[in-house]
Predict the structure.
Amino acid sequence: MPKLRGHHLICLHFYDGEGYDDGFIENLEGVLKRIAAEGVVAAEGPDDVCGPCPHRREELCTYSRTADREIREMDRKALALLRLSAGGKVDWARLRNTVETIFPEWYATHCYLCSWRSVCEKSDLFLEFRRRLKSSSSSPPGGEVG
Ligand code: SF4
């Protein structure tokens, strides 16, 4: 069963065909196909999507000088919101429903300043979740819905 780190358990629901390079995309799409059929195991650190990433150096993400620390913190927050621990198994369709419920907090604390946000904004699911957020009466913690 494929393994995904915390933030990938959320963000990959909004995957819409873009990635760092062809090898990364091919691997990612293969992993997502397997996850749809088999489910997914929550992981800490590099996962099955990080494998061929051009920014991975051994166990570290070198996307930026501070990326590894920031991404691990993001992973911890994601697992806590999803109420999952490393090693926990979950069905992808059920996880999507959980992502829907935690989306307001995730959006306010992570999407708002994320460099991949313009990519997620091409995802129908992301736009649908955000539309609901905009139409809900209360503002999300952390600021306006952009
Ligand atoms: S905008 Fe960034 S943090 Fe938000 S779901 Fe997309 S990739 Fe994840």
User: Anything to note?
Assistant: Residues 10-11, 14, 110-111, 114, 116-117, 120 surround iron/sulfur cluster (CB under 6 Å). The chain has a mean pLDDT of 92. The helical segments are 6-11, 22-38, 67-82, 92-109, 117-120, 124-135. The longest helix spans residues 92-109.
